[in-house]
Amino acid sequence: MKRDMDLIRKILLKIEDIPYPNTSNEFTIQDYHEDQISYHVMLLNEAGLIEAIDFSSHDGLSWIPTRLTWEGHEFIEASRDESRWEKAINIVKEKGGGLVFDVLKGVLIQLMTKAVMG
User: Fold this and answer.
1) Other C-beta atoms within 10 Å of 22: how many?
2) What is the CATH T-level fold of the domain 5-75, as seen in this structure?
3) pLDDT surpasses 80 at 30
């Protein structure tokens, strides 16, 4: 399965909207299959952007996010603005060909810094 940065951003934004750590076994994102979501939740957990619980079994992958980490909050702040997100995605694709997370985060931070500093 390919990594989908738009889905990653959507997952992080949805977790941020949960008013307390998620303890349910249900987590959905419109227009995405539960396997895609579980895979990306697992990746976000591995990257240290969220904490998640692995409910996987012989029936398949099942990861449920519980909360954002400090790094997850930092990434969301840098990527919250839709136009900044689109610009960063386009810059990274144009200059680098692929989407490497640390490069994308660096570009987002540079764009945010530029916007704040004028």
Assistant:
1) 19
2) Arc Repressor Mutant, subunit A (1.10.10)
3) yes
